[in-house]
User: What shape does this take?
Amino acid sequence: MTSMASKSVATILCTAKQTRFHIESPNYRELDVEGLSITVTSGDKAAGSAKGKAKARSEGIEILSNAKLRLKEGQRYALVGRNGTGKSTLLRAIAEKLIPGIPEGARIAILQQSRLTDEDGDNGKAKASAELSVLEQVIDRATARDTVEQEIKVLADSVDASDAFGPVRALRMLRHERLQKRLFRLDKEARLRSGTRGMQARKALVAFEKAVAESNTLLEQSNDEISADSLQVETQEAADMLAELQLQVEPSRIAEIESKAKKILTGLGFTEDRMGKPITSMSGGWHMRAALATALLQEADIMILDEPTNFLDLLGIIWLQRYLQALEDTDKPPTLVLVSHDRDFIGLCTDLLILKDKQLTYFHGDLPTFEASQAERKLWLRKMKDAQDKQKAHIEKTIQQNLKAGKANDDQNKIRQAKSRQKKIDDRWGMQVNARGGRFKLNRELVGYFLTSREDVDVPPEERPVVMTLPEPPDLRFPGSLLSLEKASYRYSAKTPLVIQGTNLTVGMGDRIGILGLNGSGKSTLIKLLVEESRPTAGTVTAHPRLKMGYYSQHAVEGLKALGLAEPELTALTLLTRDVDGSLSEGEIRGLLGELGLPGRIASDVPVCKLSGGQLVRCELARLFWRRPHCLVLDEVTTHLDYETVTALRVALNHWEGAVVLVSHDRWFMRGAVEGNLDDDEDDSEESDGAAERPRRRLMYRLKGGQMTVLESGVDEFERLMEKMASKLLAG
Assistant: This one.
């Protein structure tokens, strides 16, 4: 069975096995799909006949091949996999029910990386939507209240009008619109199914098309053609429908939904004042928070959250973590699937859903436990293979010795013994234990296969880790601080309060400075003073005369996107070539881009405007690293990166000789890059002798009310403060 979804640039083709038995009342919070294959291809290749679809499938990029998709009710799954493996494609296929086997009646809520107002199709609806406040917008999106209220208005106006035929026409119009929506779903179902069930679905579609045609005929009837009996019956039906719709917008129910929406928006950082403002007046970050609130407010069987922590501060992240965990105590908790680069955040998940090598594998537990178990299994398999290789070499040696001795002495027993041992190696050598740890038996473990040999011990190949190396900074020639702020203050205008108040900060070579604080506390303003994008209202900013600065802005990705749209042919390679202006050869530029995850044709052929968020971050980092800076100032650098790249960057920053000033809400990243607390499996042996001779300062600051204070216990201290605040928000 096949399903397909098209866009102007790409098509998702899904095939899967389905049971032949029709389930009348499926559990919408569970999925169990066998033989799932997903292919992404260009939109124009998938159109047309089945032959065209088969050709498109062969030419497209295969995301999954004969995989098993299994979600259990109420579990929380972290979908993990490297960038480019197809995580977002899989989530979209689930959310849009493109996968055969997902019931049409399942309620699936998804957080997508788009503005709420971008989803409005026609200009009229978009204009009306733009005038709504954030609170109204979120409630309307989550509950379809706008649609219900429009239907109530149509019926109420017709009942109140003097025209006796008004209620009948209003009733017929609303029914016809509902029938058309149902027709769309049946048409989709008929296209998804094949075989006997497909034939039944197509028959149902044809029958329903007749019902829609009859409804259209009634809609076109004039007043003279409506009988007195029909007028009486349908007028009563219109009154009944109106009463039913009014129950859905009953003040007590709406008040309950509004109270829940306010609680969610407050947890995500919205004040009462901000909730009442039009959403169009806000930045992209607030749009994403509103979209997240919409997904959380919906009554869903399956909830899909793709990078929900983007644009949230640590208070919002901890609140969301607690909120999602608390859902398990509700009557019908949704099944949760989330993608996040924040390793501490995905600790809320009960299971891992691992997308690798076009397969889905499952692990009950958290990511550190999974990584430890994988490392242990690989170690066990290597030891087992080494032992068997030694045993095999020893047996082969005795075989040769016995054959030689048997032939020399014409000893047939030794010759037979040697041949018997050789047969064992040829036919029965390999795994000595089965998957459960018991003794391997050929007729039990490989039943149904005409095999004469066990499989060899298969040690999985080492997956090439993401490794990042920062260029060593050039010699400063004479000592001194790289950057310093002295009693620096800043306000946007004479009438506004101070955003930064009397701040002192010194950054020396090798220092690791972390800055934590809630959104709006002035972190980005402080960074702009430090990199001299803004001048302080009072106080001074001093930089070393030979300082080379590398500044990553939290808006760097948006800036590159705008640059890519302005120059559609611009690639990462041409951009870097333009930046370096002859300082590096093309080979050196390609080497730098390749090391950061933009190899070969991705660097030279894919336009910047078509790069993903993570690829744009890598491109921006390459623009910083080629200059060999002494100091890196990084403002929310992890937002679009996968966790393997975040891991690599954290290790690279920890070992680097230069200074690092870091602003991030990612606790795990800050602990490693600033505090130097790397995991056991992360190699911290590369600290050079120079770094050992020069003591490295590691300081974590909290910025609140424009003033900086040192966090003596670092990230842990700030996390405890945020957990207390999150508990109050959840209780309120």
In short: The domain at 2-107+300-365 is CATH 3.40.50.300 (Rossmann fold).
